[in-house]
Amino acid sequence: MLQRDAFFDAVYELAKVDRDVIVVTADMGAEALDKFRTDLPGQFVNVGIAEQQAITLAAGLAMEGKNVFVYGISPFITYRCYDQIKVSIASMCLPVTIVGCGAGFSYDDSGPTHHAVEDMGIMRMLPFFQVHNMTDHVMAGEFAHICYGSEHPNYVRLDREVFESVSDNSHYLDLPGFFPHVFGDDSKPLIIATGNMVHKAIEVSEETGASVIDVFTFPISESLVGAISNSQRIITLEEHTLPGGLGSAVLEFLSDHKLNIPVTRIGLDFSEGYCYKYGGRKNLQKLYGLDKKSIIEVVND
After folding, report:
1. What is the pLDDT along the chain (301 residues), one digit of tens a residue?
2. CA 10 – CA 140 distance, rounded (Å)
3. Could you give the angle at which helices 292-300 and 197-208 cross, rounded to 10 degrees?
4. Cα angle 86, 218, 261; round to 5
5. Which of 13, 62, 193, 224 could form a disulfide with 197, with the two C-beta atoms 3.0–4.6 Å apart?
6. Conformational region of residue 128, where left means phi above 0, alpha means psi within -120 to 50, and beta covers everything else
7. CA-closest candidate to residue 79, choices 59, 103, 51
8. What does R_g of the chain's alpha carbons equal in angstroms?
């Protein structure tokens, strides 16, 4: 199941009960949104290809007590609207949930204009915001409820690809923002992954014995200290630029908590420019060392 459909199916069920739930979309179509159009037209607004207007409208609705979910393609609903998000939402700590579809190389055939590879970095810098990077559709459905009850702004990052669920129950509501998927030997590296890379990390762990922790909410929870304090080496894994992403967040976390653990970051290095390569997502991942073979080599190094 698509993360988008799981998320908005859950929002739809909430909206049927709570008339203050409003979905604002920037010309995005989806089967899950068709139910809003037909069944709840008074709770659905399509502003067209005008993402900045979507953010401004969402802020105004939130100031009137509405519970707003604003939806668009990830880079367009974040980079293009950054000033509106900063001024109209973050500065007033409005409980607006920004939902971006197309994490990482999801739009693999559309080039760098559609690659959402810096969004976690810029969004986690904003005051009051929590950034949630979805691992599977089960998590996506649960985070619709989490964001619905939130008193601060949220950014939910959805992938376009259908992944096998790594969760079979609704336990995310009780978690601090990370989940240990694989418990390995402390003498082996610990892979801290996020989003779609969690699935790759679990595959790698089966061949290397590495432990795997899925960090899906930023800022990183203080309780992660106990989960990593005995680790001898950490490898961070993300389909995001190295500056500002998961690896940066983990290094900041270790520094703030005075934990001296070596870290190797695996992510996107755009020091020589953006990715203008094509050939599918798996090909792009291989070019940047995000394929299974390359990750295993780093783990075993």
Report:
1. 899 999 999 999 999 999 999 999 998 777 888 899 999 999 999 999 999 999 999 999 999 999 999 999 999 999 999 999 999 999 999 999 999 999 999 999 999 999 999 999 999 999 999 999 999 999 999 999 999 989 999 999 999 999 988 876 555 556 788 888 888 777 899 999 999 999 999 999 999 999 999 999 999 999 999 999 889 999 999 999 999 999 999 999 999 999 999 999 999 999 999 999 999 999 999 999 999 999 999 999 8
2. 9
3. 50
4. 130
5. 193
6. left
7. 51
8. 19
Three-state DSSP at 25 gives strand
**Closest to 116 in 3D by CA, of 155, 150, 142, 89:** 155
Q: Write b or e for each residue in 67-81: b if 16 or more Cβ atoms lie within 10 A of its Cβ, otherwise e.
A: bbbbbbbbbbbbbbb
Take residue 289 and report the two structure tokens written for it.
Answer: 């060392």
Q: Which domains does the chain have, with CATH numbers?
A: 3-158 (3.40.50.970), 177-300 (3.40.50.920)
Q: Is 264:234 a contact under the CB 8 Å cutoff?
A: yes
Report the DSSP beta bridge partners of residue 193. 214, 237
Type of residue found at 271: S
Q: Determine the Cα–Cα distance for residues 232 and 275; give it in Å rounded to an integer.
A: 33
Which residue in this structure is represented by tokens 């610990």? Answer: 190
> What are the Cα distances from residue 184, in Å, to 194, 204, 211, 258, 298?
18, 12, 4, 24, 17
CB atoms within 10 A of CB 50: 16
